[in-house]
């Protein structure tokens, strides 16, 4: 993977996908963590591993949060932005500035179980309630609508009769790690193109 690619990660919680990516790519590629939650696991990991981090939320920036996003990203000049369990909507001006450079991971096979309010354990509860036999994870570029941007790659897992939302969550999380890492590597090796809102992968 190209060492000169600069990656900024947005995370709000434990940061397991953030940690997995940082531990499995060139460490210098991850230049910044942005979080709305100063006490989350992702921030603790950034501190421990000497990764720059910035806290941006309504409490700290009640009137100019969108401007702060813009200025901090301009300073770090990322080639790629990764959303890893970030629980706030990215401002539209940032989405336009970094079009097809902001990836998100979603714990279902989009377009199923996507949209506002569909995240985390809620997604897996919906899969169980619908009695689906297959579910999975999706990596996609974001646009102005929740979970609607161009799909990059997906992977599947089987839903067993004995599964509940918690066991399913663990199974999906295992493939999330591999899938997100693969998408990052494809991007950083310049193997992803977007043509008319569809992703083309040149492997």
What would you note in describing this structure?
Strand 8 and strand 9 (198-201) form a beta hairpin. The chain is globular and about 50 Å long. The chain has helices at residues 16-24, 41-48, 65-76, 92-97, 121-130, 165-188; strands at 7-10, 30-35, 53-55, 80-83, 102-106, 134-141, 151-158, 192-195, 198-201. The protein has 6 helices and 9 strands; from the N terminus they run E-H-E-H-E-H-E-H-E-H-E-E-H-E-E. The strands form 2 sheets. It has a 7-stranded mixed beta sheet with strand order 3-2-1-4-5-6-7, sandwiched between helices. The protein has a two-stranded antiparallel ribbon with strand order 8-9. It is an alpha/beta fold and 203 residues long. Helix 5 crosses helix 6 (165-188).
